Amino acid sequence: MSSAYTPKVKEILGWYAGQNPGVLTNIARLLTHGRLAGTGKLVILPVDQGFEHGPGRSFGPNPPAYDPRYHFQLAIDSGCNAFAAPLGFLEVGAADFAGEIPLILKLNNHDVLQDEVDPMGALTSSVKDAVRLGCVGIGYTIYPGTADRRFQYAELAEITAEAREAGLAVVVWSYPRGGGLSKSGETALDVTAYAAHIAAELGAHIIKVKLPTDALEQAAAKKVYESTEIARATLTERVSHVIKSTFDGRRVVIFSGGALNPVDDSILDEARAIRDGGGFGSIVGRNAFQRPKESAMKLLGDMMAIYAGEMK
């Protein structure tokens, strides 16, 4: 048995006992790869921002990042558990880097060429593409609160069934958006916890959400949060509540790294809060690839040391 196949990895796999062996094997591959292998924690490099924000905004701050191969190598060299990207990016490097880093194909994507109150992504690749490229899983973004969320939920349900049949893990980006939410409400604690729970109900094996603020958006939820005194004063407490909201911690929830923050210490403080709140790690895009590689390697290494318990 591999030294990375630890009791913690076995415990996590036990949460998905109803899945077929292929799914369990690919979840295990994510959990047993890279510097955090065997810890039950994940640091994933996602690079879908070129599609989402445009190449100049995404890669201009660090010009080597225009090349998809740069991101494969960054994920490998830093010891990430996986690299996630849309079809075009993965097709450039999947053969050259075959077997060196677990891959996650982002199946749907969204652009910002039109200002939308209620965003809606498009399906840009397939489960068959993920199998062809040797991926361990597929990714899909839902926007709880957006006008067409029901279509997204139904589409994700179909994709999840197909992915499971193919033995692939399902990673869901769950980002609340839409005209019914205020801007601050998109990351409010009650809304973030709700979004994570929806992703779990839709069958996600790994859930990605943004770090929650202490705001409460929904009046009905606010009454309950306040009357039951759900702790939310610190980021650690808020992370703990999001984890509690995903089947009492029986789903892997990782947190978005967000927009570029030039201050390493504040990013590392967030990682500590994620760790101390029982979170399973981070999915860090812009805060990695928009830095020069040497700086990105140091930041990712420090984050991994925090999650591994090697650094306070």
Provide the descriptors you would attach to this structure in a database record.
312 residues, alpha/beta, TIM Barrel, eight-stranded parallel barrel, two-stranded antiparallel sheet, 14 helices, 10 strands, globular
Strand portion: 5-15%
| Strand order across the largest sheet | 1-2-3-6-7-8-9-10
Please summarize the sheet with the most strands.
Answer: 8 strands, parallel, barrel
Q: Determine and state the CATH class.
A: Alpha Beta
What is the total domain count?
1
CATH architectural name: Alpha-Beta Barrel
N-to-C span: 30 Å
Compute the average pLDDT: 97
Counting DSSP E segments of at least 2 residues, the number of strands comes to: 10
Model regions low in confidence, pLDDT < 50 over at least 5 residues: none
Number of alpha- plus pi-helical segments: 14
Cα shape: globular
Describe the structure in brief:
The chain is α/β, with parallel strands linked by helices.
Architecture overview:
With 312 residues, the protein is α/β, with parallel strands linked by helices. It contains 14 helices and ten strands. It has a single domain (7-307), classed as TIM Barrel. 43% of the residues lie in helices and 13% in strands. Helix 9 links the parallel strand 7 (169-174) and strand 8 (206-209). Helix 12 runs parallel beside helix 14. The model has no long low-confidence stretch (mean pLDDT 97).
